């Protein structure tokens, strides 16, 4: 059975951003919030860099060696190394 949810104390800036996002997608604010929640609970888990690499190799794609360095640099930057 569907449930009603309530979120309190949402910052005004977030509400305005959500209203703009809803208008962009031609939805009501409630429709936009439901869409965001739906996509977050139905989304597959993100692929790890190793998973992406394996999919590229299985597809037979060739990548330049520089791409490995770029990916490592980006990953290290996000991890604070």
Task: Kindly describe this structure.
The mean pLDDT is 84. The longest helix is centred in the last third of the chain and has 15 residues, at 65-79. Helix 1 (12-24) crosses helix 2. The chain folds into two domains: 12-42; 49-79, no CATH class. It is mostly helical and 81 residues long. It is built from four helices and no strands.
Task: Give the terminus-to-terminus CA distance.
Answer: 47 Å
Mean pLDDT figure = 84
Uncertain segments are none
Question: How many DSSP E strands?
Answer: 0
Shape: elongated
What Rg is obtained from the alpha carbons, in whole angstroms?
20 Å
Biggest β-sheet description: none
Tally of separate helices: 4
Number of domains: 2
Specify the helix fraction band.
55-70%
In N-to-C order, the SSE pattern is HHHH
Q: Look at the helices and sheets and give the structural class.
A: mainly alpha
Proportion in β-strands: under 5%
List descriptors.
single chain; 81 residues; mainly alpha; 2 domains; 4 helices
């Amino acid at each position: 059975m569907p449930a009603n949810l309530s979120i309190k104390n949402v910052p005004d800036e977030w509400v305005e951003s959500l209203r703009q996002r809803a208008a962009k997608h031609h939805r009501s604010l409630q429709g936009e919030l439901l869409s965001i929640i739906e996509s977050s609970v139905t989304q597959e888990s993100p692929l790890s860099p190793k998973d992406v690499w394996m999919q590229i190799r299985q597809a037979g794609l060739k990548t330049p060696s520089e791409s490995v360095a770029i990916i490592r640099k980006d990953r290290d930057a996000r991890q604070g190394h």
